[in-house]
C-alpha cells in the first residue's frame, strides 16, 4: 500500500542536525509544484513560439509572401521578364505574389517600372506598369 496525497497517515518532519526531512505529503506537494511549473512554462514557450512564427511569416490576407526569388529560379525569372519586355534592369523580385507565382519588377530604360507576372514554368502571365506613387512606395 503506497502513500498518496489523500492518505491520512502523516509522518512528522524529523530534524537531523540542521536539515529537516520532509514528510511524504510535503514531497508530493514539491513534486506537483515543480512539474506544474515546468508544464506551464513549456506551454507558454510553445504558444510564444507559435505567435512569433505566425507574426514573422510575412504573409498577409492576400497570400503575398514578399520573399525574393533565389538561386536558379532567380536567373530564369530575370531572363523571362527581360526577354518579354526587351529592355530594362531587374530591380526587385517576389515569390508567391498575389497575382502570380513569380513577380519580377523591371526598371525600364526611361525610368518607369513594370511588374512582370510569371507562372511556375516562367511563362509570362501578366504585365503591369507601376504608377508614379506605387513606384516610389519603397523609398
Structure, explained:
- This protein is of the alpha+beta class.
- The chain has 2 domains: 16-55; 71-132, SHC Adaptor Protein (2-Layer Sandwich).
- It contains 3 helices and 6 strands; from the N terminus they run E-E-H-H-E-E-E-E-H.
- It has helices spanning 24-55, 71-85, 132-135; strands at 14-16, 19-21, 89-95, 102-107, 113-118, 124-129.
- The chain has a 4-stranded antiparallel β-sheet, with helices on one face. Strands 1-2 form a two-stranded antiparallel sheet.
- The longest helix is centred in the N-terminal third of the chain and has 32 residues, at 24-55.
- The termini are far apart.
Provide a short characterization of the protein structure.
The chain has 139 residues and is of the alpha+beta class. 37% of the residues lie in helices and 22% in strands. The chain has 2 domains: 40 residues; 62 residues, SHC Adaptor Protein.
In terms of topology, how is this protein built?
Elements: E1 14-16, E2 19-21, H1 24-55, H2 71-85, E3 89-95, E4 102-107, E5 113-118, E6 124-129, H3 132-135
Antiparallel strand pairs: 1-2, 3-4, 4-5, 5-6
Q: What is the third-level CATH name, the topology of the largest domain? A: SHC Adaptor Protein
Q: Which CATH architecture of the largest domain?
A: 2-Layer Sandwich
Shape: rod-shaped
The Rg value, from CA coordinates, equals 32 Å
Distance between the termini: 76 Å
Q: Tell me, what is the CATH class of the largest domain?
A: Alpha Beta
Spans of at least 5 consecutive residues with low confidence:
49-63, 133-139
Report the count of strand segments: 6
Mean pLDDT over the full residue set? 73
Q: Structural class, from helix and strand content? A: alpha+beta
Amino acid at each position: 500500500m503506497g502513500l498518496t496525497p489523500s492518505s491520512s497517515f502523516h509522518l512528522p518532519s524529523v530534524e537531523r542536525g540542521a536539515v529537516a526531512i520532509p514528510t511524504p505529503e510535503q514531497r508530493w506537494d514539491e513534486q506537483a509544484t515543480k512539474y506544474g511549473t515546468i508544464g506551464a512554462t513549456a506551454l507558454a514557450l510553445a504558444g510564444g513560439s507559435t505567435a512569433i512564427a505566425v507574426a514573422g511569416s510575412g504573409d498577409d490576407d492576400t497570400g503575398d509572401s514578399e520573399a525574393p526569388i533565389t538561386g536558379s529560379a532567380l536567373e530564369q525569372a530575370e531572363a523571362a521578364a527581360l526577354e518579354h519586355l526587351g529592355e530594362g534592369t531587374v530591380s526587385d523580385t517576389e515569390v508567391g505574389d498575389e497575382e502570380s507565382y513569380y513577380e519580377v519588377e523591371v526598371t525600364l530604360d526611361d525610368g518607369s517600372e513594370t511588374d512582370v507576372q510569371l507562372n511556375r514554368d516562367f511563362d509570362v502571365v501578366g504585365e503591369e506598369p507601376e504608377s508614379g506613387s506605387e513606384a516610389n512606395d519603397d523609398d
